[in-house]
């Protein structure tokens, strides 16, 4: 059985791993896994397998929903960020629904900070393995691997329900009083009256009425306290504008600059620095090749011809340098 330190050491070794060509979902991690596709969870599996932690993370996974469910079945799952520690496997839902069934990304926690933020190492983020600073806005929850030196799980799974007690229940009662006009005793005891108020809140805001105050109810409560009726999806934070380093590395800054250039040609992309399906199709439309969202040799050759680089159908550092130069010059 491996350790937290071993898992983090392997994740750090993967920092900077990209795709060849960019947008292809092909690299040594996907080759090891034996499948070409989104590789965020393959990265977790790869690092675990190379640090004697594969059984600790519940096995080999590419599908994030199944991975979270595996942690849940083992009693090693917690909703939200409460009690999270380095080495935990943290799961994201970009839509903000906080539902396990909607999970679409995963990473490993490297550090926990005051103020409710964490540093993660994530594969397949902007087509690379990178460090990210995250807050609770898109986090569904986390799984705690059964490392040889794993800390005990928190005493609850992060959901408040009948019988729960403590400061979190007091906060819930205060918030219910604000948004529903109820007059609950703010005593930190989730009893019959609090259960009814939670159900009333869930019914009013179109949530599943089960009396359990979990991540989905919490995100709607946050919106309700601000006068809204539903959660707002988090807005992307694009890399800053400015002259690109001509270093041959296709990272978020280069991708964001390309997105801005494509938007000037009529695309309507969110500038987020992520080379996703819409960006790939917009690039293909601009290059006048089949817009299928798959960056293969035909797309790369068209790009290389546009840039005046060597035309071999392989998107390497030379192609990226030519792209960066064109973006800096405003000729793309």
UniProtKB/TrEMBL annotation:
It comes from the Bacteria. It holds the Pfam family CHAP. Residues 166-216, 257-303 form the Peptidoglycan binding-like domain. Coiled coil: none annotated. Residues 32-124 form the Peptidase C51 domain. This is CHAP domain-containing protein. It comes from Streptomyces acidicola.
């Amino acid at each position: 059985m491996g350790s937290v330190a071993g898992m983090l050491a392997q994740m750090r070794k993967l920092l900077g791993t990209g795709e060849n060509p960019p947008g292809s979902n092909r690299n040594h991690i996907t080759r090891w896994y034996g499948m070409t596709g989104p590789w965020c969870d393959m990265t977790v599996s790869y690092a675990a397998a190379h640090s004697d932690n594969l059984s600790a993370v519940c096995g080999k996974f590419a599908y994030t929903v199944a991975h979270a469910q595996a942690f849940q079945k083992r009693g090693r799952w917690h909703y939200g960020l409460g009690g999270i520690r380095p080495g935990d496997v943290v799961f994201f839902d970009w839509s903000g629904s906080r539902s396990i069934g909607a999970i679409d990304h995963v990473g490993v926690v490297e550090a926990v900070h005051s103020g409710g933020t964490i540093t993660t190492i994530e594969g397949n983020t902007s087509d690379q393995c990178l460090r990210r600073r995250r807050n609770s806005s898109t986090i569904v929850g986390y799984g705690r691997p059964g490392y040889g030196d794993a800390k005990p799980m928190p005493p609850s799974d992060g959901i408040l329900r009948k019988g729960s007690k403590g400061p979190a229940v007091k906060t819930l009662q205060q918030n219910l009083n604000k948004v529903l006009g109820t007059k609950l005793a703010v005593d930190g005891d989730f009893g019959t009256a609090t259960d009814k108020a939670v159900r009333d809140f869930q019914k009013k805001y179109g949530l599943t009425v089960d009396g359990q105050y979990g991540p989905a109810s919490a995100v709607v409560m946050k919106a309700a306290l601000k006068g809204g009726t539903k959660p707002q999806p988090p807005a992307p934070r694009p890399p800053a504008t400015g002259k690109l380093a001509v270093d041959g590395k296709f990272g978020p800054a280069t991708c964001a600059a390309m997105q801005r250039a494509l938007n000037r040609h009529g695309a309507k992309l969110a500038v987020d620095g992520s080379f996703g399906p819409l960006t790939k199709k917009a690039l293909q439309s601009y290059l006048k090749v089949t817009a299928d969202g798959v960056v293969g040799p035909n797309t790369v050759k068209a790009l290389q011809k546009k840039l005046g680089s060597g035309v071999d159908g392989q998107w390497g550092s030379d192609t990226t340098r030519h792209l960066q130069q064109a973006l800096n010059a405003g000729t793309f």
